[in-house]
């Protein structure tokens, strides 16, 4: 029996890659291919794809017993990304291909029966894991080369077929390299805040939400600008740094949403699923491998739920854990995967089912009105920091000065964010909304006269302890926007105003 050949690929567990060593042994029994190491159905079918691809690439398939072992053996291996590595492993074990160039090389790609190399999902997180494991090179389908080129410190090669990879491994040709174009996404044209007429309270709440990373609920009749305002939050948020952009791109890659340009977008994402979306579409899931949902695609950005009372109550309540923990956990028979989900939630709702332009024209019965907004459960609303009631627009022409534009408000938001980062960065927090309430009360305590309104509402039962902590975070954001060192009584009162404004 020949000694085992070893090649490398990468498995995906959620959005994290796990390097997989593939050992191939030929001989010692009846002809056949045996895969070990917890392969799923798609991977088990790779035996037929790999054999046909090797034969159609002009190479002989060993007519002997072939054992392919994927390690770590206890990790479930899913998908077709291992096809290329399996083919190379068999041919190296058969001494048909030299192993020199394959050392320290991650191999990813699905094989067609004629030997063509097809793209697979999750190339970016796989190669990030390969780089962390010390690998120096990667061979991927040519279509995935722009995505692979986003990983610094690892040389990525692209191929259109198995035959090209075999010739490269033998030293007879060069593989494709990324030409460097498209590394940065083209500037996006974002909606302008000055286009929103009136709604001073809502505009101020939007600025506070952007400055502190707070969640926001807007309640008002149709046509008051709720959706317009929500779409303009992204223009106020700071750009993503490279690590954040890579993390978001990795999530999009696993979900199949990265596109084929390989451009790395630094604009915070804005995700607005329809209210008919399922729990799996919102939170993540699906049969077999649990894929990321809208909450993860909105990571480090905005998740906007329009007409939120039309969402099933159980689906909305599923947001409670990611809102608190910044990640979503999806459990399946094969284990639990975690996807990042640190997003800002923006909710929009009509005041009642009939939603007339003027509230006095409402024809809904009181119980119907209560049931309509009752789909937003108390525990969910308790996690929403800012609530604003929006009035109907009463004029189409601007009689005075237009509202501030996006650039003006964004400068204030970035200054407030910088103040929060300077204060919290040593503790690992990036904005006021992420700071635990206990830390606010112990490390940065405020005088009793400043906290008096919060304590009064706690004693009367109007405010929960979580609600008080969230109001305190908003007060810190208001302080940062004002350029103050710490909140005063005015900021606490304003935080309570915005927490209670949409309670009706």
Automatic annotation (TrEMBL):
Give the coiled coil ranges: none
- Name the domain of life this protein comes from: Bacteria
Alphabetized CDD domains for the sequence: AAA
AAA+ ATPase domain location: 212-394
Give the matching NCBIfam families. YifB family Mg chelatase-like AAA ATPase
What's this protein's family per the entry? Belongs to the Mg-chelatase subunits D/I family. ComM subfamily.
* PANTHER family the UniProt entry points to: COMPETENCE PROTEIN COMM, MAGNESIUM-CHELATASE SUBUNIT CHLI
| UniProt-recorded name of the protein | YifB family Mg chelatase-like AAA ATPase
Q: What is the lineage of its organism?
A: Bacteria, Bacillati, Actinomycetota, Actinomycetes, Pseudonocardiales
């Amino acid at each position: 029996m020949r000694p085992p050949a070893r090649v490398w690929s990468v498995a995906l567990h959620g959005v994290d890659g796990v390097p997989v060593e593939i050992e191939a042994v030929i001989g010692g029994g009846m002809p056949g291919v045996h895969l070990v190491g917890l392969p799923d159905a798609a991977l088990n079918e790779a035996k037929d794809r790999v054999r046909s691809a090797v034969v159609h690439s002009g190479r002989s398939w060993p007519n002997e017993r072939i054992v392919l072992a994927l390690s770590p053996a206890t990790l479930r291996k899913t998908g077709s990304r291992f096809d290329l590595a399996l083919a190379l492993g068999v041919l190296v074990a058969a001494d048909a291909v030299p192993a020199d160039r394959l050392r320290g090389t991650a191999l990813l790609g699905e094989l067609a029966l004629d030997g063509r190399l097809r793209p697979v999902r999750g190339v970016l997180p796989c190669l990030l894991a390969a780089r962390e494991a010390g690998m120096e090179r990667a061979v991927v389908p040519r279509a995935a080369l722009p995505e692979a080129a986003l990983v610094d410190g690892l040389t990525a090669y692209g191929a259109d077929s198995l035959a090209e990879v075999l010739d490269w491994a033998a030293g007879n040709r060069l593989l494709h390299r990324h030409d460097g174009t498209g590394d940065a996404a083209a500037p996006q044209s974002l909606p302008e805040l000055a286009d929103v007429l009136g709604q001073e309270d809502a505009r101020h709440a939007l600025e506070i939400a952007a400055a502190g990373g707070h969640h926001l609920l807007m309640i008002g009749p149709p046509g008051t600008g709720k959706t317009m305002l929500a779409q303009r939050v992204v223009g106020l948020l700071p750009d993503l740094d490279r690590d954040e952009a890579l993390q978001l791109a990795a999530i999009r890659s696993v979900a199949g949403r990265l596109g084929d340009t390989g451009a790395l977008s630094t604009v915070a994402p804005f995700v607005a699923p329809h209210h008919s979306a399922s729990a799996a579409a919102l939170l993540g899931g699906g049969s077999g491998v649990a894929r990321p949902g809208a909450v993860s695609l909105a990571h480090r950005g905005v998740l906007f739920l329009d007409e939120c009372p039309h969402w099933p109550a159980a689906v909305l309540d599923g947001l409670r854990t990611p809102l608190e923990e910044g990640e979503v956990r999806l459990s399946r028979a094969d284990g639990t995967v975690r996807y990042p989900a640190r997003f800002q939630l923006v909710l929009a709702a009509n005041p009642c089912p009939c939603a007339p332009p003027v509230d006095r024209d409402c024809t809904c019965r009181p119980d119907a009105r209560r049931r309509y907004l009752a789909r937003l459960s108390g525990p969910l609303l308790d996690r929403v920091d800012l609530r604003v009631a929006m009035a109907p627009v009463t004029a189409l022409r601007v009689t005075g000065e237009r509202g501030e534009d996006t650039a003006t408000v964004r400068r204030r938001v970035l200054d407030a964010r910088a103040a929060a980062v300077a204060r919290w960065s040593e503790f690992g927090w990036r904005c006021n909304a992420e700071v635990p309430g206990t830390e606010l009360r112990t490390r940065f305590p405020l005088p009793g006269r400043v906290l008096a309104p919060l304590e009064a509402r706690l004693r009367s039962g109007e405010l929960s302890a979580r609600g008080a902590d969230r109001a305190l975070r908003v007060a810190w954001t208001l302080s940062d926007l004002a350029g103050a060192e710490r909140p005063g009584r005015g900021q606490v009162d304003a935080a309570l105003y915005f927490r209670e404004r949409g309670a009706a």
